[in-house]
Design goal:
- InterPro entries: ABC_Transporter_SBP, ABC_transptr_periplasmic_BD, Vit_B12_bind_prot.
- The chain has about 290 residues and is of the alpha/beta class.
- It has two domains: about 160 residues, 3-Layer(aba) Sandwich (Rossmann fold); about 120 residues, Nitrogenase molybdenum iron protein domain (Rossmann fold, 3-Layer(aba) Sandwich), CATH 3.40.50.1980.
- Helix content is about 40%, strand content about 15%.
- It is built from ten helices and ten strands.
- The strands form three sheets. Strands 4-3-5-6 form a four-stranded parallel β-sheet, sandwiched between helices. It has a four-stranded parallel β-sheet with strand order 8-7-9-10.
- Strand 7, helix 7 and strand 8 form a beta-alpha-beta unit.
- Helix 5 runs antiparallel to helix 6 and helix 6 packs parallel to helix 10.
Amino acid sequence: MRVLRWGLLLTLLAMFDTAMAAVCVTDDIQREVCLEKPASRIIALSPGATELLFAAGAGGQMVGAVSFSDYPPAAKKLPRVGSYKRLDLEAVLSLKPDLIVAWHSGNPLPQVERLQALGLPVYYSEPRRFEDVSTSLERFARLAGTQSVGLGAAEAFRSGIDALRERYADAAKVSVFYQVWKEPLMTVNGKHLISEAIQLCGGENVFADLPTLTPRISQESVLEKNPQAIVAGGMGEDDPGWLAPWRQFASLRAVKNDNLFFVAPSTLQRPTPQMLIGARALCRHLESARARH
């Protein structure tokens, strides 16, 4: 009888240890993602997800990423599993991941769903607000067992954004056109994270009411909106070339007051902690626009 009781106790302890090791989080499309233990072989299917995982302290557990995953520098050394638009499923499977972080609106869903069908845990990432960046850091840290790093990074990002929100809460409004691409000409609507950055700095996105997240627009529509400032990301980290063509429109308020601004795309076009750097730069630019009004 004593042996039986000891056997039962050991079984219960083993079950308790397993339960304690298991981790569950809710992803950005409200699916519960559970792992038997913290992930040790993670693949990210977007450059933004790669950056978030490193920021959450999980860089050491990453075994693969898609093309253009270039930050931090250590991310460049990860094996590639295709691009975010076209995955190399054989490369993914060969790396034997125990967690895949997918980009819900950017990755080819049939390919991601095939990975799910093969039994691989998939977390769908889709940060749309600043708070989503912080919660992503917290969730990734939990999935990777790196809470001490991830929770600190999340809090630092929240604090930085809150400080900007407080500083520019009463700032005079500046109408802004943000150019996300040149050919075709594209911008962002009011639901995009970049638009939240504009609002944070006391700006007003002139295309906020468009239904598509990153809509194509015409040059004529920008001239009609006549924004006080034009902000562009350009093709590289130090390439403000997209701003030059607007100078031909001398009557445009942004041109007349020399309010043509460049913000490095990696700091504003990826939903990662680097957005704090981009938001600070954007706020400085809009403050300059106010001074020239």
